[in-house]
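Comment thread on ticket #2218

A.B. wrote:
> Attaching the input chain for the structure job we discussed in standup.
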Amino acid sequence: MAQHYQLIVGRDSTWSLRAYLCMQLAELEFSCNAIALGEAGYQQQLAKLSPSKLVPVLHVDDLVIHDSLAISEYINEQALGKLYPVQADLRAQARSYLAELHAGFTAIRQGLPFHFEKQARPASLSAEINTEIARLSEIWQQFDGCFAFNKAGSIDAFYVVMALRLANYGIELEGAAGRYQQHLISWPLFQRAINSAKQW
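C.D. wrote:
> Ran it. Output below, let me know if you need it in another format.
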């Protein structure tokens, strides 16, 4: 019997958007249950669906997987490795960059909150934000305007949200890093995902 995938997402949740993109990349059929975070009663609703009381969370029949990174790893296995490079050393590198994004770039997250629409460019950026932007540029320079490892994968699904976050504040990187940023933002799968997320 076919497995039933249900992805629980949160409105305006960037981590939910990343998990949603991974599901789309894997071409798995799934249903999507959106929770309006911040509205009255949402915590009680979420507590029934997510052991961590956070989104995203993936239900696969009786199995419950929470956290976007864990979800992407599980989806990759279900899709027979489709979301990561085939070569072991490249796969390890992709996971390193994913883990770095998942755990870091806190100054950007706090100082430049995510919005779907363009925002006024800040008059100045903190030293911490500039340091993190420089690190993003260092990573993205390697990809030179294409997908990170020549075909769309989890790493692109995770970093595209950061690419749009920066662009919506008027921050566009230069050179190969900028080409990668723009390539991700114009990615048709991401554009469709953004349109869906706006309806959550």
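A.B. wrote:
> Thanks. Noting for the ticket: The beta strands are 5-10, 30-35, 57-60, 63-66.
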